[in-house]
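Check this.
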Amino acid sequence: MRELSCFGDSSVGIAAAAAGDSGGGGGALDRSLQAATTTVYGASLHSGKELLIRVTWTRSAAGATGLAVAFDDALSPSSRCAHHVLHKKRGSRSLATAAGTAVGVHWDTAEATYASGSSPEPTGDYYLAVVADAELALLLGEGGAARDLSRRFGDDGGGAVVLSRREQLRGAATAHTTRCRFREGGAEHEVAVHATRGGGGGGEGEVRVSIDGKRVAEVRRVGWGFRGNRAAVLADGEVVDVMWDVHDWWFGRGGGGGGAGAGAQFMVRARAEKEGRLWMADQPPARGGFFLHVQCYRR
């Protein structure tokens, strides 16, 4: 089985938690954070411009939530784009991209509700709107304010496409379940990841990745199989590449993430049409394949 080398593990702060890109890269979860989720959207404006929008939701160990946004002028990741932390619970902010695109950010999370006490991303009673060159490029959330913005700009912001998503979390158990669509307009899938060290710390451990309740990757001797990949065909015919890298988590590498380096990493990526082989971490992803990156850290 061919091994993969996956991603760096530099320390990051709350703003740097937004530094994930459409290729799924990014560093370790800052020690002050309990969880962070970064979603990357690609918006095509009527002017012909393409805008990459990164939205990061965070939750601190004390339970405080945070929000940051970042922008690029093309659908290609850039480590040089500025990340803007939105400190207030509601407000508006005017920005400009490196190429001069005028961007307005409008948000209100004062009464936001969440699926659980540990989730960083709200599920209701909030909105986040991004206006680029007087055009509604992205609208998240629901409620009267969101509907008013949609009517104001004559658009629902639904033209933005989800390119990638990175979920980072810290907990006693290395297990996480999330939902995503591997292709715009496709079916929603449940992705579950799990890693265990075995009884008493002396076992051989286990790594599992399941999609819609079906195991698509499993390793029972983690000390030998801490990195790897599998291809899987889902029930709806979608072909995905499943990758894992739990080296730092298994061997206790220091340097961030509570003494576990980059943590236990799991990656699932949909293959783009006519893409007939496994995508590798050192190659740019083909357009059209959604990328999910989950990083789990022990407390």
About this structure: Residues 164-298 form one domain. The CA atoms of residues 142 and 219 lie 41 Å apart. The first strand starts at residue 33 and ends at 44.
